[in-house]
Amino acid sequence: MQPLQPALFDVAEQVLFDDAEGGIRYRPGLIDGPRASRWFNELRRDAAWRSLQRPMYERVVDVPRLIASYALGSADVPAAVLEARDAIRAVVDAPFDSVGLNLYRDGRDSVAPHNDTLHALAPRQPIALLSLGDERDIVITPKPGVPGRRIRLPLAAGSLLVMSHASQLTHDHGIPKTRLPVGPRISLAFRARQPGTDLLRGYRPAG
Fold first, then answer.
1. DSSP symbol at 169
2. Which of 36, 137, 48 lies closest to 88 in space, CA to CA?
3. Could you tell me what percentage of the chain is helix, strand and coil, using 3-state DSSP and rounding each to the nearest 5?
4. How confident is the model over 21-68, as pLDDT tens digits?
5. 14-196 falls under which CATH superfamily?
6. pLDDT in tens, 88-142
7. Domain edges within the chain
C-alpha cells in the first residue's frame, strides 16, 4: 500500500473514489496556514471537549481521543466552527447542521475503521472533514467486494476530505495509531443529520 502524497502547493481536488453522489475527494490547502493555526488554537482552548466511553467487543472502552459536538444553530458554537463552516460551504453545497470534533492528542489517539451511521444522516448529503494541527494519516478501505485499492492519505492542516453519503456503504475510514512523534490534531466533521438524531449516540461520559 503506497501513501497518496499530494504535490507541493497543490490545491486541486483529488478524486480518491467516484460514485453517483461525488465519491471521496481530497482538497489540500483549502484553508491557509495562519487561519488554520488560529482555528486550531481557538478550538483546542474553547471547545467543550469530553472524554467518553462506548461499548465495543462486548465491553465498555475509553474512546482514544477527546470529542466535542455542536448543532450549528445553537448559541454555544465556537466562532472558529462557524468560520470553518462558511469556508467549506463555499466549495461544498450541502445543508450542514451539525459538527463533530475530535482532538487527537498524540499518536496514541485514533479512530478505528468505520463508516458513518447512515440512518442518522440526511440522504444524498456529504460529510466534510476539515483537518487542523499536525498531519495524520487516514486509511480508506473498500468494503469486501468493492473494487479499488486501500489508500493511506496524509491529511494536512487546512485540508478538506469530502465523503458522499453513498461512499459510507462502500468504504471504511479510520485514523490509525502511530509511533511517529506527532503533535495534536483536530478534525471537524460537518454533517447534515436526520431530525431528532443524537449527535453522540452510543457514547457515554468516561469515569
1. G
2. 36
3. 15, 35, 50
4. 999 999 999 999 999 999 999 999 999 999 987 676 677 778 889 999
5. Alpha-ketoglutarate-dependent dioxygenase AlkB-like (2.60.120.590)
6. 999 999 999 999 999 999 999 999 999 998 888 999 999 999 999 999 999 999 9
7. 14-196
For the packed helices 79-89 and 33-46, what is the interaxial angle rounded to 10 degrees?
Answer: 140
How many of the other CB atoms lie within 10 Å of CB of 92?
Answer: 20
Strands (E), the chain: 14-17, 24-27, 52-56, 59-62, 66-71, 98-104, 111-114, 127-133, 136-142, 151-155, 160-163, 171-175, 185-191, 204-205
**If you average pLDDT over every residue of the chain, what do you get?**
89
The side-by-side arrangement of strands in the sheet containing 59-62 is: 59-62, 52-56, 204-205
Q: Are 65 and 92 in contact (CB under 8 A)?
A: no
Length of the chain: 207
Q: CA torsion, points 29, 35, 40, 43, in degrees to nearest 10?
A: -130
Q: Residues 6 or more apart from 175 whose CB is under 8 A from it?
A: 104, 110, 111, 136, 137, 138, 139, 187
C-alpha separations of 169 from 100, 115, 126, 138, 174 in Å: 20, 7, 13, 18, 15
